[in-house]
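Hi Q.,

Before the meeting this afternoon, I wanted you to have the iron/sulfur cluster prediction in hand. No need to reply - just skim if you have a minute. The sequence and ligand are here:
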Amino acid sequence: MADLNLTPSANRVHIGFFGRRNVGKSSVVNAVTNQDLSVVSDVKGTTTDPVSKAMEILPIGPVVIIDTPGFDDEGVLGELRVKKTKQILAKTDIAVLVVDASVGKTQVDEQLISIFKDKEIPYIVVYNKADLKDNVNLNENEILVSAVKKQNINEVKERIGALSKREEQDKKICSDLIEKDDFVVLCCPIDESAPKGRMILPQVQAIRDILDGNGICVVTRETQLVETLKNLSKKPKLVVTDSQAFAFVKEIVPKDIMLTSFSILFARYKGFLKTAVKGATALKNLQNGDKVLISEGCSHHRQCNDIGAVKMPKWLKDFTGKDLQFDWSSGTGFPEDLSQYKLVVHCGACMLNEREMRSRIKYANTLDVPFTNYGVIIAYMNGILPRSLEVFPDIRELLD
Ligand SMILES: Nc1nc2c(ncn2[C@@H]2O[C@H](COP(=O)(O)OP(=O)(O)OP(=O)(O)O)[C@@H](O)[C@H]2O)c(=O)[nH]1
Ligand code: SF4
Ligand SMILES: [Mg+2]
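Predicted structure with the ligand bound:
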């Protein structure tokens, strides 16, 4: 089980090292991390699969370091490796392009740079093997290093740190909705889907966010909400509930108290609430035979049980009254051809980093395929979306 004291992987800055074979990607990774993370050899194509490791690097902080196979790999296996590297690119927050200084930039490097630009991934170029060639004309985002001689490695870390600071946005889960000393009530059902002995990550993150915002957090089961509200001497500013209990909770919470769900807050936190609300409204346009993609962020559905496989298709069919066709994707896999779908319904994506979600959404947007998520579409089908969006009036108006 994941150690809850550690920053969850999805929230770490993902730093990917890319480049041609044998330029010294793995050597640079090992030098930057000060660990023997990856095997190094003079055989081209030594790294055959992406190698990821979560760690703490000063001055960057909690990161996931990802070493990748050479992007110029050949043959059928090579193509597979390139495909995997492209999947890594989808979740990369900061890219490091490693170039062999004695060779210089090649077409493959230019191709990688244009991918970084296209995906808006901030990047630096590291010319490695400075011990073989030390006169290289450098642009502003380029550095000359030697992994073998450990030259200029601190500079690499500082440059990555600077990029990651620029990336870091001051995002809030709900603390921007409250003021100091405001009460926030979190309704957390404890049923068979709740993990034994602990809270789930979104609940833990919300508690921390409220405390960071100097709010006062009260956590209760939905079944004790009436008792909780009765006994709070001050009216809470906000009630946040698990989506599954929304219908129950909304009957209890008076209209003058803001009410929303964890899914709504996290869709906003991950930057796709607006898209998801717009996507949900596309439900009313679906026709018989339309294809819907159901996409989940992990392959074993520990927290999502049978929502994607069983419940969601049934709910969508019942709600639309149409004979819909379904496809499923899971884990980091996502279909290369989205154009055949009339709607993508994504899970809450708690195990995916934001960059990965952003690239999925961007892809759907370029093809005009509506994209929504479980929490939002369930709220829409149950008629509770308007109330849960009252907190965000500009998004609420998309429903009118
Ligand atoms: N002279 C010199 N050689 C280096 C340097 N860094 C790496 N090498 C050598 O370059 C070769 C390839 O290094 P790797 O780190 O395995 O390169 P890679 O890019 O990860 O290679 P693949 O995994 O095969 O794509 C090894 O023989 C390294 O010892 C350096 O700074 N100077
Ligand atoms: S919300 Fe998605 S990523 Fe999170 S546990 Fe469920 S299937 Fe996995
Ligand atoms: Mg390697």
